[in-house]
Amino acid sequence: DSGVTQTPKHLITATGQRVTLRCSPRSGDLSVYWYQQSLDQGLQFLIQYYNGEERAKGNILERFSAQQFPDLHSELNLSSLELGDSALYFCASSAQPRDTQYFGPGTRLTVL
Amino acid sequence: ILNVEQSPQSLHVQEGDSTNFTCSFPSSNFYALHWYRWETAKSPEALFVMTLNGDEKKKGRISATLNTKEGYSYLYIKGSQPEDSATYLCAFGPYSSASKIIFGSGTRLSIRP
């Protein structure tokens, strides 16, 4: 158990809908990262937050947004969902940006 | 743009054989090199973090070495077992404390019984 929690574990929704994925980092970690794993692919970095502020952006679509709240939990919002958004979404956290990242169990999103 | 490369992309090894694979990273602006194991249907799990040139780390049958001057790290698995089947990711940690670690695309290891 890494100490990072993600909810929900599974999510099934329809095209055009909007969903919110939630992540609680390890106690004391200030940085939160979101990654996408589609089909049999590797980790695609989406976005990073540090102590409530956006720090780095990867290949995140404009339909996707995220935020980190004062209690340091983070949410990833995915809107106007398409079939291709079906993937496993991982959240990770670290104490400082360059430190080891600890991954949550992931949320599996299925768009029908 | 920081480039972290891993080779080979995939590897099939007979049970009991030993194997190794490589992570290449920028030799400048180095702070740390991380190795992760990512088993199918699970999340990536940190194995090692190394910071000094010449560092060697060991965990059971898995070990890693680090050469920061030439920008590479090797991961070795001795006497491969089926439970070693996973994708092994390395990640480069830049010197700037404000910068996040950069992941390679991984080496997918399959152990044949």
Q: How does the major sheet of chain A shape up?
A: 7 strands, mixed
Order of helices and strands of chain B: EEEEEEEEEEE
Taking Cα atoms only, what radius of gyration of chain A do you get, to the nearest Å?
A: 13 Å
- β-strand amount of chain B: over 45%
Tell me what portion of residues of chain A adopts beta-strand conformation: over 45%
The general outline of chain A is: globular
N-to-C order of helices and strands of chain A: EEEEEEEEEEE
Number of helices of chain B: 0
Distance between the termini of chain A: 31 Å
- Low-pLDDT ranges of chain A: none
The biggest chain-chain interface is: A-B, 23 and 24 residues
Helix content of chain B: under 10%
**Radius of gyration of chain B, whole Å:** 14 Å
Distance separating the two termini of chain B: 40 Å
Q: Report the strand count of chain A.
A: 11
Strand tally of chain B, please?
11
Main β-sheet description of chain B: 6 strands, mixed
Protein described:
The complex is a heterodimer of chains A (112) and B (113). By secondary structure, chain A is mostly beta strands. Chain A has no helices and 11 strands. The N and C termini of chain A lie far apart (31 Å). Chain B is mainly β. In chain B, 0% of the residues lie in helices and 55% in strands. In chain B, strand 7 and strand 8 form a beta hairpin. The chains are: A mainly beta (112), B mainly beta (113).
